[in-house]
Structure formats: structure tokens, C-alpha cells
């Protein structure tokens, strides 16, 4: 059980022109589940591997608990890691895999047996204890890999995209399972993924990374509701936020009064677009391009003259729309995210409060 | 190939039978000759069916050796050959396992140079460097010794390369998981690498044992003491007796006995051997 603190952490690979990580500051509280998410190459795995001690630190510091661990071997850091391809020892039985780390630490035999039994029970892998990993399915191997981490009772769990090799259904199950186990043991955890759904559902603290920097840190809902930058706005949420350059809006004849003057891009989530906006303050004339019925909801792709990228509208249930239909979609003011020319969020209260008031009344009338 | 025609079946079988016959016939002749009395092979009429002197021939060759040829009894040479082959096998596997381990996972100065030095030895088998090697061995006073007999044959790169290739197929995560589990370099080697290489080691042992067993040139050069004669050398000495016809019945008995150990090794290690060459267990 420990707090993990990372200060001004930099990583430069020998021979590389640019830094892989440019000064990361991050603090993960005791028992918290932090999820690092970002596109491939953003440095999230490097950061995790540096915390694990598998990559050297170029500059800055990593503290686990009260210890500065920069120079410690992975085994001395008291962490356990779960790998994407499980990395089970193929020649050992499941029991052997679970025991190996404990044996190397000279844990007494009785203690080892107790911990292995406990972990096997929690993970429901008791029937497989004497099998080799080869004889197990992907999901079972993943459980064994989890077990190997649990038996050690480490200060922190590190997960490196542990669910990427599983099929979608199993991934959903394991997601819940990992979260349940992490809560149960209340062990500080860092979880790396490129899947924003995993990130949203599992995180206490969501860390969005891009190009070796942290874009934003916060609770998943914080990041969803108030993305600090265009990158976060586009990355969190599926389907992604509609991002409309102001010039496009102007070209399609939308009324832009009341938008902050420095706005360069306007964002709106698919579920906030109003499909039939008679009285909306800002509206666009569009045509339906495609309709995707997902079952519980419908995704409608919309195009319009002057728009460089199509809009996506999300509606619950089955929408009665067909490709080719003209539509007037509304962009409700209170759901707009405005970004400036640097891609940074413009604080929403900089707009006229009177306008917002009016807008919310109009919404209430509909 | 899903061709399924009768004449094709017959043809393929004919080719295979012919091939087997070509390979097996000399062996059969040796077997037959080893069971006939001394003169019958030299008369010009080669018998093709086993005779009745097998027991006599084999016990003479094994027990007392050939009179007049000044040779040791064959059991002695068989033991010598076994010792040599086993030493070469064990030595090669030990040295190539450790060197492949170093090359794949350790970052030391001149690593690439070491790698290429080992690589170059592939092009320099004992036969090519035989004079300098002999000189070195002689200067160290290693003539007529087990060390002199085996050491120069142990240093070679083939096995190192096989192990290197195998090690490189192991996922990095496996090494990292072991590091996190507190396994140092020696522990990793012993607990994880060795068990995983088991089938590879078995397959290589078969090849190397036979390689060691059939060595002829090098043992001939470095041993003058009959105590160290190997069976392959012994056969040569039996044939090259001075002022007499070779006693083919004894020679052939020795040949058959010399063939046995490699055959046994292949038969008993075959399953492991095939497994080691095809299996990719990760």
C-alpha cells in the first residue's frame, strides 16, 4: 500500500533525437487506480516500465511509498506487473508460476501455500493449479498472470495493456474482474491501455497522455465533461466529440453570436446534438449520410456543405431517419466546448451569462 | 499433393525401396562378413548370407584384439570413443549455452566483436586449422590426453548459433517477468532458460554425440598411446596391417560394433530429437 509520486520525469533513449517523456509530474494516491491512456507512441508504456524499473530514468524521480526507487532493481521495488502476453513461465505449472516470485524472496513454505491457495480461490483457478499454461485458455492465463501479481502482496500493481489479447466479450468481463480485485486488495495500481472504454470504466484517476506529455489528469467524468484540450476532447468518448472549426460553421451559415471571440474550434458530443431544432440558438442544415443502428441506440452520420468532417449524432433507440433526408440539427449552447487556436479549452463562463440563461430557458421550453 | 494414382504409388515405392537398398546393402555386407571365418571374404566370392562364426569373431575383436596388428581390444576403444564423444557433447553444450546467453542478454563492451569472432569460427573447422591447433596442443603438452583430444573439437559456433536463435524467440516479457519476480541472471538461467532449452539440448546432444563419435583425423594426430585409441582409428589400423591381408571378418565385426552406439542414441533420442527441432513452445 503506497502512494506513487513522479516528479519531473524525463526519458531520452540513447541516440534518439527527441525525448520520449518530457518531464512528467504525477501523483497516485494510496489504493487508487490510475489509468494511463493515449495513442500508441505517446509514452504511456515507457512511463509504466520506468516505474517498474525495466527502463532507466534519464532525469527526475520516482517514489513508491517514501522510497526513492530510481536506482532500484525491479525486484526491489516491491511491485508486481501484469503483461499483455501474460509472460507466464511455460515450463512451470500454474502453481509453479504463482510460487516462483515468493520462492525467490525466501518466503516460508507455509506462507507460500497459504497465499497461493487464497489467490487461486479468489481468481477461481483452483482446478488448473497443476496444469501448464499451454493447457489454459487466454482468459485463464490472464487470471494466472493476475494471480502471480496478487500472491506477492506488492505495494503496487502495474498493468501493461493486460486485456488486449482477449476477445471483446472476455475483455468486458475481465475489466470488471480486475477492478473488483483491485478494490478488494486496495492496492495502488497503474493501468496502461489505448482503449478509451477501458480507461473510462476502470479509472479512479484518468491520465491522458500525448507525445510524451500529460494532457490532462482527473476523474473520468471530469475529463469527459470538461476536456482541457482538443486532444482530450477527441480521445475520450466513443464515438468521439464532433469538432467543428469556426470557419466551417460560418461557411454553413450558423449563427455564431455569443461564442467567445478567440474560439477557433467548437466541440459537441454526439448525444448532445438535437436532431430537429426548430428554435435552437445555433443550428446547421445538414443531410443524413448514413444511419448505423446499434440496437440500443442509433448513430447518424451527417454531412453539410462547408463542413470538412461529417458530424455524428447519437440517439437512443431506432431513429426514423434515412440517408438523404435533410435535417436541421441544433447545437445547444450549454453543451458546446470551445477551444482556442492552440487547441486549449476556453473557460465557459467567459460568455455572457444572460445568453446562457436565455439558452437554458429555450431548452426547457422544447 | 493429393495425386492419387496407382502407378504413381508403385513408382514412389520403387524409388524408396531402391534408396533403402543402396544405403542398406553395405551395412548388410558388413554384417554378413563379420559372421564368416577369416579367409572366406578374400576369396573373391562374397557370401551374402550370414555364416556361423559370428560369436567367435565378435568375442575375439571385443576381448583380445587382433593378434599381429598390435591393437588394443575393441572394448577399450569403444570406451575411449564414448568418453571422447560424451566430453565433446557436454563441453560444446555447456560452452554454447553460456556464450549464447551472454550474447543475447548481456550488454558488454565488444559484444558485437565477440559475436563476430564466434561467427568466424564457423568457417574454421578443425581440419582447416589443424596445423596451428596441433602446434598449440603440443606446446601445452596435451598430446595423449583427454583434454588434448576433446578441447579443440569443443570450441565451435554451430551450437552457439542454434541456442542464440532459440533464445531470441523468447519474448522479452518473460525476462522482465523473471526480473520482477526477483530472479537474477544466474537464477534466470537455471530456473527458466535451462528447462525451456531442454528439447533443444537433447536434439543437439544427438548430433554432437555422433559428431564426436566419428572423429578420425584429430584423434589420429594427437594420440600415439594405444591407451587413447578410439574405435574409428582402430578400424583404420586393423585394415592397414603390415605384410598381411586384412582380416576382414574382424574388421567388419569392429565396424558393426562401432556403428551400434550412434544407432542406439538415435533410436532412443529420436522422439526428443524431432521434438527439439520442430517444437516452438512459448
Automatic annotation (TrEMBL), chain A:
Residues 4-236 form the ABC transporter domain. Gene3D superfamilies: 2.40.50.100, Nucleic acid-binding proteins (2.40.50.140), P-loop containing nucleotide triphosphate hydrolases (3.40.50.300). GO terms for biological process: carbohydrate transport; glycerol-3-phosphate transmembrane transport; glycerophosphodiester transmembrane transport. GO terms for cellular component: ATP-binding cassette (ABC) transporter complex, substrate-binding subunit-containing. SMART domains: AAA. InterPro entries: AAA+_ATPase, ABC_transporter-like_ATP-bd, ABC_transporter-like_CS, ABC_transpr_MalK-like, ABC_transpr_MalK/UgpC-like, Mo/tungstate-bd_C_term_dom, NA-bd_OB-fold, P-loop_NTPase. Keywords: ATP-binding, Cell inner membrane, Cell membrane, Membrane, Nucleotide-binding, Sugar transport, Translocase, Transport. It comes from the Bacteria. CDD domains: ABC_MalK_N (cd03301). One of its GO terms (molecular function) is ABC-type transporter activity. Belongs to the ABC transporter superfamily. NCBIfam families: PRK11650.1. This is Carbohydrate ABC transporter ATP-binding protein, CUT1 family. It comes from Gemmobacter megaterium.
TrEMBL record, chain B:
One of its GO terms (cellular component) is plasma membrane. Residues 78-269 form the ABC transmembrane type-1 domain. It comes from Gemmobacter megaterium. The complex is composed of two ATP-binding proteins (UgpC), two transmembrane proteins (UgpA and UgpE) and a solute-binding protein (UgpB). It is found in: Cell inner membrane; Cell membrane. It comes from the Bacteria. InterPro entries: MetI-like (IPR000515), MetI-like_sf (IPR035906). The chain crosses the membrane at residues 7-31, 83-106, 113-131, 143-163, 200-218, 248-269. It holds the Pfam family BPD_transp_1. One of its GO terms (biological process) is transmembrane transport. CDD domains: TM_PBP2 (cd06261). Its main location: membrane. Gene3D superfamilies: MetI-like. Keywords: Cell inner membrane, Cell membrane, Membrane, Transmembrane, Transmembrane helix, Transport. It is a multi-pass membrane protein. This is sn-glycerol-3-phosphate transport system permease protein UgpE. Belongs to the binding-protein-dependent transport system permease family. Part of the ABC transporter complex UgpBAEC involved in sn-glycerol-3-phosphate (G3P) import. Probably responsible for the translocation of the substrate across the membrane. PROSITE patterns: ABC_TM1. The lineage of its organism: Bacteria, Pseudomonadati, Pseudomonadota, Alphaproteobacteria, Rhodobacterales. The gene is ugpE.
